[in-house]
Amino acid sequence: DAALDVISKAFGKTQDVEGSISGAIQATYLVMQHVGGKMVCFQSSVPVTGEGKLRPKEDLASYNTEREYKLRKAEDPFFKRFGGECNRIQMCIDIFCCPPKFTDVASLSVFSSATGGQFYFYPAFFARKDGMKLKAEVTRNLTRETGWEAVMRVRMGKGLKCTNFHGHFMIRSNDLMALPTVDADKSMHVDIGYEDQLVPHQTTYLQCALLYTTSLGERRIRVHTAAIPVVSDIGELFKACDSCATGTVLAKLAAEKIRTTTIKETVHILNKKVIDILKEYRQLYSTHLHPHNKLILPETMKMLPLLMLCMQKSALLKSPNEVTTDERSNTIYQLLSMPFDNVMKFFYPKMYPLHDLNQIVMEKDDTVKLPQTLPLTLNSIKDSGIYLLDNGMACYIWIGRGISPQWLVDVFGLQNPTPQDLMNLQVGAALDNPTSKKVIGAVNSIRKGNMYYQQCFVVRQGDPAEAMILPWLVEDKFQTSYSYTNFLGFIHKGILTR
């Protein structure tokens, strides 16, 4: 309190409105360097003075050139250098970034990624629209169970070794992950490679050990050990594959690759990996066992081509005309530590029909049983329907033009709202009627337990805001991208010509 009083007296009459995030973080570092801990930073303007000052980087002319990757990297080495120093003293930096315009997420997020922190991004922040989300995410950040001063190591059995590490931490002594804080909202990814030509046993082992301090000051170690069978037949390996886990790993690799190369090259690398995997499977079988013009997919990997298409339609790899540099940089940051379930929903959202209220069941324990999900295509949507689309970071209620205006009155209490009224609507508490309770209950059920507070945008068919939903119908052709059917044809052609 005394510090706040001093600041208000010293700078209360200043006319200088320029910001310097480096000064604030370095001052906090001096206070915390003896004890470590967590620093929460709220950034609402572009830092334009001091170390780490930023400048606009939105340059469409750089795309498809050798300069493109620089748009997605920290411009000043200060961010990585000082982030590493904060990691050394066990200081985590969480940043809530609420800019009115461009702010260079690629640079600011390095503070959080180097210290095991969290970066929250609210583009074009407007309190009426984003206030509830900001409050909910600050609350979760400060109240979730957290481990402190953590280190983690992954060990492999004979013949295997860890070759690379992906996530938000620093590496010490080749294979020790240093995490000033650790919590359930983050994940790590470790690449495993061969140390020798062959693994000498029929079973190998993987062990992950996490040493951390609880919020009560107890030093604990948590160890997970898994036995993994070793096979010599690649056909057996395909039977045990998990296409969703494979897609998640490829997404994280793409998020790292795009920092050093162009979007076009990253897409080419992803497509090549999928084609190589499926070509290897095709070669396991004699050509007389299947027609030459038929695409052969392993039963366990039928989702892989779809996930690759979804990845290319996401903010990670979209055209620069469809997504800003800040939004892409935020997507890169989030993907590198995003838990598996969130990655899957981000690339292939879940869409539920809400017009048949009998399919929404309110259980006695306050849980909600939702209807079966629908394929993400316009063919699944009817003018007389209402649909809830959940991508893990936000959700959307789409209302067909055949729905009575009374539905909006029953659910939200809105009489003849404008499109802007719907965009500013804060979907929270239900009204006292069965329709509202079931619809709002469905929204709150998908929010429950999520690391992100999902804003719910209500869109009527034909409103301008409908443009937010159409790109998530990933099985359809959108602008210059493939439809799912056409993408399968592209993959099949690649397999036959390689």
Automatic annotation (TrEMBL):
Domain Gelsolin-like positions: 368-424
Domain Sec23/Sec24 helical: 242-344
A Pfam family that the UniProt record links to this protein: Sec23_BS
Biological process (GO), any one: COPII-coated vesicle cargo loading
Residues of the Sec23/Sec24 beta-sandwich domain: 147-231
GO cellular component, one term: COPII vesicle coat
PANTHER family for this protein: SEC24-RELATED PROTEIN, SECRETORY 24AB, ISOFORM A
Name of protein: Sec24-like protein
